[in-house]
Amino acid sequence: MTTSATTKSNDLFGHPRGLSFLFGTELWERFSYYGMRALLTLYLVKHLLQPETTPNVIGYASVASFFNWLYGPLDIQPMSSSIYAWYTGLVYLTPLFGGLIADRWLGRRRTIIFGAVLMAIGHFLMAFEPMFFIALLVLILGNGAFKPNISSQVGMLYAPDDARRDRAYSIFYVGINLGGFFAPLVCGTLGETLGWHFGFGAAGVGMMIGLAIYLWGTRHLPVDNMPVRNVARVPREPLTRDDWRAISSLLILCVFVTFFWATYEQQGHTMVIWIDTQTDRHINLLFWAGEIPTSLFQSLNPFMILTFTPFVIALWTWQAKRGREPSTIVKMAFGCFGVALANIVMVGAAWDAGAAGTASALWLIAYFAIITMGELYISPIGLSLVSKIAPTQLLSMLMGIWLATSFTGSFIGGYLGIFWSSMEKGDFFMMIAGIAAAAGFAIWGLSFVLLRDETATGK
């Protein structure tokens, strides 16, 4: 693999210029993804899964038969949770294959461009009701080609010993969440006020902007090591014992990080229903009075990531200077504990709702604040960890495996979401909190075994 450590004269604000273009591309790609996701559950529950609409949707009968066979007879809410979970899960399974395709055949640049084009097509297809499941399939395939390779290219901008790499991934993560913040405000508002298809169409426009930025910045991006045809290939360097130990460490972590995503991703489906049906969304201000659209609450998490990230980085820097910064593995355990605590807060919200049936929106602010802190202790540092310790021959594929934890997590999360309609809401939130806490303790226990590998790789 060629590492494009750019020269100092080509740096922008202390980082390679390529980081700015990858930042902008990812911002708009995440705008498209989160814009569509902000509407997905509401669209399913309020429109697509209604009896008068489903006959118009190509493939609905087969999809419904599959989920009814897998889980038992499902009503509208459990069916929507199942579709949401399988979509978000497959979005993070296909990067495994996208990384392999880039490593072995197409190279990262071509694979990213191919994936971006597919995703733009998929978002525009969402505007046509009969094409819903075809659109989801195209989006899943496009994301699989795009996601692992753009994440890998961030690390390739830096030399292996460049201390700026961790900060680069934190900056990159800000781009992800800028897109995630604006997406519900734009796509969600358009979808809920003007019509679902306007929201989905806006997501497609966002993806086209992201592709244009990537193509514009191509000359500043890392050069691929493309496979050479018609000549004798230089054999790849064999994996060393340390390489295999690093791979094993990542795979063990993936098992437990899966349960973080299973509990964290409830905010995309069961929490949307809570916000829509059991949260008092009415406000009365001097300049505006009315009900806040449900989808706008999806902006709270990315907004808080943007707000909290500088403080979290400052905290880690302060701890590092005193030799007290937690290891990467321990940080991940803290991330799981954050999800557990956030759901305990929602147990209080369920108690507050009581007989009235609705709770104050302030509970949601506390929930999103705590779960966001948990996310910051897992998601961005996980990307950095993979880019550091993964053998270069398998970097994109292992990045895909790491991202695929969201597949298994979403699959499990979708199964958990089925119980939303049949359980008391306080009991449901306590169940989610217990699963997240158990994952946290498991990762904490693993830290005593894996810390040696983490230290050996230079972390």
Describe this structure in words.
The protein has 459 residues and is mainly alpha-helical. It has a single domain, classed as Growth Hormone, Chain: A. Strands 1-2 form a two-stranded antiparallel sheet. A two-stranded parallel sheet has the order 3-6. α1 runs antiparallel to α3 and α12 runs antiparallel to α13. The protein starts with 10 loop residues before the first strand and ends with a helix.
Proportion of strand residues: under 5%
Average pLDDT across residues? 83
Oligomer: single chain
CATH class: Mainly Alpha
CATH architecture: Up-down Bundle
Helical residues, percent: over 70%
Distance between the termini: 21 Å
At the fourth level of CATH, the homologous superfamily is MFS general substrate transporter like domains
The helix-strand sequence is EEHHHHHHHHHHEEEHHEHHHHH
Largest beta sheet: strand ordering: 1-2
Number of domains: 1
| Tally of DSSP β-strands | 6
Strand pairing plus helix content: what structural class? mainly alpha
- Give the overall form: globular
Give the low-pLDDT segments: 1-9
Characterize the main sheet. Answer: 2 strands, antiparallel
Q: State Rg.
A: 22 Å
